[in-house]
Amino acid sequence: MQPEAANSAARAHTYSEHFADGRAPAPRDRLLAVEAPVAIEINGLGYAVMMATPADLADFALGFCLSEQLIARPEQLLTAEASEVPAGGWMLRIQLAADDAAPLMERARLRLSEGSCGLCGIESLEQVLRPLPPVTARLDVADAAIFAAVSALPDLQPLGRATRAVHAAAFCTPDGAVRLVREDVGRHNALDKLLGAMAQAGLGAGEGFIVLTARCSFELVQKAIIAGCPLLVTISAASTLAAQQAAAHGLRLVSLAREDSFLAG
Predict the structure, then answer these.
(1) Residue 2 has what pLDDT?
(2) Half-sphere exposure of 56 toward its Cβ, with a 13 Å CA cutoff?
(3) String of DSSP letters for 180-234
(4) Which position has the higher pLDDT, 155 or 127?
(5) Which of 67, 83, 87, 219 has a CA 20 to 30 Å removed from the CA of 255?
(6) What is the per-residue DSSP string for 32-82?
(7) Is 172 a catalytic residue?
(8) What is the location of CATH 3.40.140.10 in the chain?
(9) CATH code for residues 36-128
(10) Which are the contacts of 174, defined by CB distance < 8 A and separation ≥ 6?
């Protein structure tokens, strides 16, 4: 972690450590991952409140708008300003180009999503299972590349190593080299941050694959499909709906990924 990012990502806490062998409890200092409400305001309208790690919020703003399908291109997001508020938490103010704000106006309302659910403000089953574009990118990724990426990721998670309490999302080249990593207490937030960082760097999701240190839920699969990612790798198992949606939209899904094995399909 960079020093300037550390305070918003992790903070020190003193515990009393207890032992099974009968030794007296002893004080122990360790870092805790910061979890804070981040209120997202778009074009002056309250849109969502996400429980998140308030670091890399510019990436989060862009990735959130892309995965919510409020915008289709990075340049449609004009500004994103984050500020800590005295009452606790953060305000993330986003300005979209006026001509591109129609989807926002249709769905705008103040909504609370405690786990960064990825389905903010959607009220009907039809909208939850709304049609998604097929993934058209095709990528030839050898098993060895997946194993290489999964093996490399732990060393690229500074917040995860320090706190043991956050998820990571990584973008990898077809040969398994990790290009970008973002971390957050919420797995959906981590993926949104990664998608925003990729867009900022001009990296298309079709140029590589994504690895997540998370359970493979429907919402994560949906975000990957919307981004156009051809391969999603997760270290935990997939849900039924995640597997069904991936198969229906041309997303190759790998789950329970370890350094020496994974499940495909």
Answers:
(1) 42
(2) 30
(3) EEEEESSHHHHHHHHHHHHHHHT--GGGSEEEESS-B-HHHHHHHHHHT-SEEEE
(4) 155
(5) 67
(6) EE--EEEEEEETTEEEEEEEE--SSHHHHHHHHHHHTTS-SSGGGEEEEEE
(7) no
(8) 143-264
(9) 3.10.20.10
(10) 139, 140, 141, 145, 207, 208, 209
List 65, 117, 216, 229, catalytic entry = 117
What is the residue-averaged pLDDT of the chain?
89
Q: Residue 50 in contact with residue 112, Cβ under 8 Å?
A: no
- CATH architecture of structural domain 143-264: 3-Layer(aba) Sandwich (3.40)
Domain with CATH 3.10.20.10 in the chain: 36-128
* Position 106 confidence tier, pLDDT thresholds 50, 70, 90: low
Q: Which of 154, 128, 138, 147 has its CA nearest to residue 205?
A: 138
Whether 65 has a pLDDT exceeding 50, the answer reads yes
pTM exceeds 0.85, yes or no: yes
